């Protein structure tokens, strides 16, 4: 359901995707998407814009992006991120902006209903999880496979 970006204003009405949250957790509205979506989106390889909706316990797995910086504005509730390298957890409340630089390994924590808007620059699908990471890490949740590790 791609909407073409041309020389006119393009609209994606909130009602066109609102029902997808929190079941999908991530509603990609802009980006160079490689998988089909049940809602409209605008293709753009420069940036991704994602509406996120979480309930308590929607914690993510440790991961990092080689070349992508993420910015997230918390709109409702709170969202936490554990910095895997230090073990420090940062909690962000409604109105707070989170910036996660490329190569920083983090794990999302959710202890109450939360919503936000995430922007990723550039739009790339390369998320590196424990099973594909060769870094030495005390927080590893899965063995590394397919990567040369001593």
Structural descriptors:
mainly beta, 7-stranded mixed β-sheet, 150 residues, 0% helix, 3-stranded antiparallel β-sheet, Jelly Rolls, disordered C terminus
**Amount of beta strand:** 35-45%
Helix content percent band: under 10%
What fold name stands as the CATH topology?
Jelly Rolls
The tally of strands reads 12
Order of helices and strands: EEEEEEEEEEEE
The 3D shape can be described as globular
Tell me the span between the first and last alpha carbons.
Answer: 45 Å
CATH architecture: Sandwich
CATH superfamily: Jelly Rolls
Count of helical regions: 0
Explain the layout of strands and helices.
Elements lengths: L1 E2 L22 E6 L9 E3 L4 E7 L8 E3 L3 E8 L1 E6 L5 E5 L3 E4 L5 E4 L4 E8 L5 E3 L21
Parallel strand pairs: 1-3, 2-3
Antiparallel strand pairs: 2-4, 4-11, 5-12, 6-9, 6-11, 7-8, 7-10
Would you write up a description of this structure?
The chain has one domain (17-132): Jelly Rolls (Sandwich), CATH 2.60.120. The chain is 0% helix and 39% strand. The chain is built from no helices and twelve strands. Strands 1-3-2-4-11-6-9 form a seven-stranded mixed β-sheet, with no helix packed on it. A three-stranded antiparallel β-sheet has the order 8-7-10, with no helix packed on it. The protein is globular and about 50 Å long.
In short:
This protein is mostly beta strands. The chain has a single domain (17-132), classed as Jelly Rolls (Sandwich), CATH 2.60.120.10. It has strands at residues 2-3, 26-31, 41-43, 48-54, 63-65, 69-76, 78-83, 89-93, 97-100, 106-109, 114-121, 127-129.
